[in-house]
Design goal:
Strand order of the largest sheet: 12-11-13-14-15
CATH class of the largest domain: Alpha Beta
CATH architecture of the largest domain: 3-Layer(aba) Sandwich
Shape: elongated
Bound molecules: FE2/S2 (inorganic) cluster
Oligomer: single chain
Strand content: 15-25%
Largest sheet: 5 strands, parallel
Helix content: 25-40%
CATH superfamily of the largest domain: Flavodoxin domain
Distance between the termini: 27 Å
Number of helices: 9
Amino acid sequence: MNFAKVCRLSELPPNSRKIIQLGVHKVALFHYGGEITALGNACLHKAGPLGLGEVAEKYDGYYVTCPWHGWEYNIKTGSAPPGFHDQQSVYEVMIKDEDIYISAQPATKAHRALHDLSIIEDLIKLKYETTPVSKNILGISATNMNDDLPRYSTSESALQMALSYAEEKHGASVKMIKLREHGFRACEGYYSQHMNACTWPCSITEMQPDDGMTQLYRDMILWADIVLLATPIRWGNASSLYFKMAERLNCVQNQITIKDRVLIKNKVASFIITGGQDNIQQVAGQMMCFFTDLGFTFPPFSFLGWSRGWTAEDMDKNVLQFKKSEYIQRTIKEIVDNCLETMRQIKNMHSEKIKAPNPHRQDSFSADIVNPDMNM
Ligand code: FES
């Protein structure tokens, strides 16, 4: 077998790792437990750089943990932990005259085992449930409360009224997701390491299919024709639950960045924004910006707002006023009517002809700079 000199022994002190280029491949070198070993650098999951991973003694030897989503490999044998069947490529190592050599070809080839993802196959394969005649309206309530001590929520009540009206007046199919009831993990920022680390379906959903966002992905991406999102105003912004959800939708927008693939097709969004004090336009603006970046279409006049001004510190009267507001009764219906009319018009829009004028990976000012640690 041919060997190639890759670095000096002194460049890989004990308890360290290093990524080197070997022809067109990158190889991760490890020096742990008094031994030097070499694995292919590209993780078998999404090609995360194994040479940047933490190494620890566990199971039956030393294992490296992929820094992107945590897959593990024995740094000597390349095998996955007991119970898994992935095999990372392994290179032979030779030390000669204080230099490290590795085999030009892997002594053991990489093999990715089958991972059963059938539980989220509908998301992977994007099995859309909308039809030319469907009228599926998803309400998302972003208010938070202790359901053991329920209180009246103006945003959620308005949303419920809107869904009931859509069902009764237009024969729409409706669903309500209350974000507070769908325990879900916060976005863990995989995108910050590499755009390819933010995957569709979300890597958290892949790791933990019962995470609460899995159902929201299904309902929003595959099922809904219209999304009605209701939020209270908290310190001048949408609720923290809204932002927690929005961060987890990065994986939807990111498909445009890395694959020019728009997951949201022919869907309408509108917003219900309520608060004792004000900032409705700022909240609506933020949400419109985010939802248009996902690919949603808005009807003219795509939000309704309710607030009572800067000095409205009498929140008990806020609810009284809201309940008897004819403005609320009227605008709830108008926003639903507007959504359905817009949906009717865009139903047959050729979404494949709609281009997303968003930056793609090649638009980066550093697109031509090679990161020596990354595999792509
Ligand atoms: S665990 Fe390595 S890329 Fe996902």
